[in-house]
Structures are given as C-alpha cells and as structure tokens.
Amino acid sequence: MHARHTAMSVKERPQEARARATAPFRDTPRDQSALLIIDMISTLEFPEADKMLPAIRSAALAIAKLRAAADRQRIPVIYINDNFGEWHSERFRLVERALQNARAVDIVSALAPRDGDYFIIKPQFSGFYATNLPVLLPKLGVDRLVLTGMAADVCVLFTAADAHMRDYRLWIPSDAVCAMSSARKRWSLQTAHASMGAETRPTSKLTLSKWRKN
User: Residue 118: helix, strand or coil by DSSP?
Assistant: First the structure.
C-alpha cells in the first residue's frame, strides 16, 4: 500500500515538476555540464543487494544533493537506467516497479525522475551503447559530465570510458557512486582518474560550481 501510494505521488507532483525535457533540433556549442544518474532506479533484486544497501543509500544522499545543485545551476539531469530485460518498458513503469520493493522504496522515492529530467533506457553496461545519449549530449551543448550511481566498477566505469573517448571531461564523486565492495570502488575510481583524467574527489571536497570552473 505504501509503495503504491508513493508511486502515484511521484507521478502526480505538478507543483514540483520542471519544464518538460526537450532539446534543440541542432547541436549547440559545447559549454554545458550534465549530471548523469546511473541505475539508481532499481528494484534491488540482485544477489549483492543486501550487502550493498548501506553504500547505495549513502550514494543516494550525495546524488540528491548534487541534483539539487544541478537544478539551481540549470544543469540538465539525465537518468540512465537498465531495462531489466523489459524491452517494452519505459520510465514510469520502471519507477513503479522499483517502488514495489521495500528495500528500494526510500531510495527511489528520493531520486525519482521529474518531468524536466531526461530518462534513457540502456540495454548494456555503458550509457552510450545503443542509446540516444550520444545524440542528446551534443544537442544540449554538454562537454562535462558528472557520473553518479552504481555500480562504480561496472556501469559507471563503462560509461566513463565511452565518455572519455568522446572527449568529455569527467567528475565521478567518490561519495556519489557505490560498488559491491570498497576495494572494487577504489579500484574503479583509481582507473578512471589514471586512465581517463577523471576528477574523483567527493562532494564534501568539491562542489559542482567549483568543478565547472576548473
């Protein structure tokens, strides 16, 4: 009952909704940043979920603060999410499904996408693979990406590698990503920093506005 009520409230918040997510027809000059939220709309129905839950909740708090900062600075927020094998699925169905799981309801309620957010469904690890992200970002004039979500050593890292090959500057805040273990998270962040030039300082050490000015 609680999950169903929450699902309806996520969809029916006109007073909190931003303008509809649109993009220019043509590419625009690259001088904008974007916040990517990867795989946080999840039912958490995977073997490692219980072990990861504290880390997921901690990352969700940092992501929510980043999203609020992005809103203040008029930075686009882009959700990139697995389709859980449901090729017919779409944003609201994925959100409602995740809200049915007691473990996920607090996380998804806090981070549910709004009308003004972009939502991209991906079939594989990278947010760039077989999605419209490579088309959307140039239209929004994006040249810098803040990567958040899970898992740091899989989908976040694969997305970072594809972004790096396309010349995007990267910030992967260490407190806004999570992995199955602290060792795997540390390895992935070290790899992104050493091989892709990614900034990895946490949000407690670096703000969105300061990173954009670097």
Answer: strand
